[in-house]
């Protein structure tokens, strides 16, 4: 099973969803490490309670030295023999060098239907834009923020009376279904990228889509 590190900055509910999925013997990946850039991330306790090794590399300690921060992370990842990175609410922008080093082996979950609403405050922005469909995206990480070949998306309706909290909760439930599925595809070697577009082998129909 491929050894995966989940990278978190906070609550870690997506990381917990990956842990739950990886508990199944047939799941093709093992969450071998939970790495946080903040010592106060609540998800660290969740991971430790499930017996998963945790590590903290405080990004704040490195100030603007992003390469230094990433070198410290890389040293931890090397020690744990990690093969795939799953960003799970990891709120740091990574350098081109780090992204290139993990090309094809680093995925992210983002709370919008990319390429709509990259960046922060996605639910408030979806409400302000009046979109009728919103959702989440799992994508391979490339150099731009919230960019890279899309592996999977799930859509939810925006309902009359929604506020940021109700919409976020509806999307989050889909995130917790989508991320384990997409990570399994990548870990099983079923993802191929051509011309910036990802194809998932053996997924039929509207591939990589949960409605
Ligand atoms: C999730 O909604 C995730 O999609 C989002 O942060 C939240 C983390 O929650 N990620 C981003 O916005 C990245 N651009 P979690 O810590 O409970 O998984």
Automatic annotation (TrEMBL):
Q: Where is the active site?
A: 110
Annotated pathway: Purine metabolism; IMP biosynthesis via de novo pathway; N(2)-formyl-N(1)-(5-phospho-D-ribosyl)glycinamide from N(1)-(5-phospho-D-ribosyl)glycinamide (10-formyl THF route): step 1/1
Residue intervals of the Formyl transferase N-terminal domain: 3-183
Q: Where is this site: Raises pKa of active site His?
A: 146
- In the Enzyme Commission scheme, what number(s) does this protein have? 2.1.2.2
Binding-site list for N(1)-(5-phospho-beta-D-ribosyl)glycinamide? 12-14
Quote the HAMAP family the UniProt record gives: PurN
* Function comment: Catalyzes the transfer of a formyl group from 10-formyltetrahydrofolate to 5-phospho-ribosyl-glycinamide (GAR), producing 5-phospho-ribosyl-N-formylglycinamide (FGAR) and tetrahydrofolate.
**Name of protein:** Phosphoribosylglycinamide formyltransferase
What species is this protein from? Roseomonas fluvialis
Lineage of this protein's species?
Bacteria, Pseudomonadati, Pseudomonadota, Alphaproteobacteria, Acetobacterales
Task: Give the gene name.
Answer: purN
